[in-house]
UniProtKB/TrEMBL annotation:
Belongs to the short-chain dehydrogenases/reductases (SDR) family. This is Short-chain dehydrogenase. GO terms for molecular function: oxidoreductase activity, acting on the CH-OH group of donors, NAD or NADP as acceptor. InterPro entries: NAD(P)-bd_dom_sf, Sc_DH/Rdtase_CS, SDR_fam. It comes from Nasonia vitripennis. GO terms for cellular component: cytoplasm. The keyword Transport does not apply. Keywords: Oxidoreductase. Pfam families: adh_short (PF00106).
């Protein structure tokens, strides 16, 4: 039996999500979770590209502490050392391969132990490599799901916590057809996961957002294809002519989305260094059930 959690079907809900004494309306976003100042933030993949820009913007906006879950290699350590010189104990480095669930869990526990809470989770780690479909799914989607559920289990109101914010870095390839099929599929998964998980805001107190950047100047856009995928090369050629926005524009979109009071806007797009805008869910799924 299909169970629907949306407000239009609340009379059929078997999970009691809509009991008046339990639930805040989705359009009433708590002011407490619309702030960055004095918050504890976790960012996956935070030492390059969009993740690094988000880390800097969080710190500039007054975040109390930013934890970077990142692969432990020389370049990431160099970047972290530079950040640490400027922000000192407001930033921490946590070696983490996000495909390893136990490492995600252990790092969450370390941050919780030292700072007593985590307020904002930024699921940013990602790759654009259709040569490695299994790894693409593991990093772009599976790790994001694992981290999100761990975060909710630790700070959700239904677990006695105070709630918080999850921001998933998706892509405009998660809204429309993209260039790389596997990458596009994973980002569609992120958008669907975000919209569905946000439906539980009233129960968990965890706001769930997705930021969908268009082409952005980051290391992951440097694409190569193996022999099996050469048929995709004509599709890639147009990328030489598109506008690549700055990672700072995406970071600003993250901050703006968190601070927005629009409870209906869970998915935001940002393109061409312009202000982010909410993406409406155009399809009514009642047409399909």
């Amino acid at each position: 039996m299909l169970v629907c959690h949306c407000t239009t079907c609340k009379e059929y809900c078997q999970f009691d999500f809509f009991s008046e004494n339990k639930v805040e309306k989705m359009t009433e976003i708590s002011r407490e979770i619309r702030e960055v100042k004095d918050k504890v933030v976790v960012i996956t993949g935070g030492t390059s590209g969009i993740g690094l820009s988000i880390a800097k913007h969080m710190l500039k906006n007054g975040a109390k502490y930013v934890a970077l879950f990142e692969l432990d290699h020389e370049n990431s350590r160099i970047v972290f050392d530079e950040l640490h010189k400027q922000y000192h104990d407001r930033i921490g480095f946590y070696p983490c391969d996000v495909t390893k669930t136990d490492l995600i869990y252990n790092n969450f526990d370390k941050v919780m132990e030292s700072h007593k809470t985590i307020d904002i989770l930024i699921n940013n780690a990602g790759i654009a490599d259709d040569n490695k479909p299994e790894l693409s799914v593991d990093i772009n989607l599976k790790a994001l799901v694992v981290a999100s559920y761990k975060f909710i289990a630790r700070i959700g109101k239904h677990k006695g916590g105070k709630g918080g914010v999850i921001v998933n870095i998706a892509s405009t390839a998660g809204i429309v057809s993209g260039v790389l099929p596997v990458y596009c599929a994973t980002k569609h998964g992120v958008v669907g996961f975000t919209r569905t998980l946000q439906m539980s805001y009233g129960l968990t107190g965890v706001r769930v957002l997705a930021i969908c950047p268009s082409f952005t100047n980051t290391p992951i856009v440097k694409l190569t294809l193996n022999d099996d995928l050469k048929f995709l090369e004509p599709v890639l050629r147009f990328m030489s002519d598109v506008y690549f926005q700055s990672p700072d524009s995406v970071a600003k979109a993250v901050i703006d989305a968190i601070k927005s009071s629009d409870g209906d806007a869970s998915v935001w797009a940002v393109k061409r260094d312009e202000p982010a805008f909410p993406v409406a869910e155009k399809e009514d799924y009642h047409d399909y059930i």
